[in-house]
Amino acid sequence: MCADTPGNRVPRIAPLPEEQWDDVLKAVTAATGPLNVFTTLARHPSLFQSWIGLGSALLMNGLLSARDRELAILRTAHHRSCEYERAHHRGLALDAGLTEDEIAALRRDPDDHPWSDDDRMVLAAADELHERGTVTDATWTELSTRFGERELIELVMLIGHYHMVAFALNALRVQGEDAAPGAGEA
Fold first, then answer.
1. What pLDDT, on the 0 to 100 scale, is given for residue 8?
2. Domain of life, per the record (predicted)?
3. Distance set, CA 138 to CA 26, 134, 141 (Å)
4. In a 3-state reduction of DSSP, which class is residue 82?
């Protein structure tokens, strides 16, 4: 269920069968469940180990608030047409205080929703990085009134990271767990 494929298309690379999981993947899935993003990318163990470290740092140990993080991620998922990323971050966004209405609004023009100034800054960064590959001076100046240099670096890295993840999910046609063979079976 990513950009160029209907949900019933076959993944280009299937998730790694459980009997082939290494200790790193076993530890990740023990914490998250056997998510297809992890079991697919783990087919490249050394890259997976490096990637999971960065992803974990951004997702669990970052300086940005959970709300800012999830706004940036969900806006990026929208821009990259990545339903997998959007579906998996919906619950995290709700836990971070976003409402269902706000989550839905992230798929529309920001002017169609009464976002706070703080939210608009994050959305502007995500939109500009998507459209231009950079952030305008005006947006950077505005962001700098709210975030220190470490948070600014993290915000840009977070958005870039989730663009990369969406590229991989879309190109590999990673399916949602409910679309996987045997999903829902007891």
1. 58
2. Bacteria
3. 45, 12, 5
4. strand
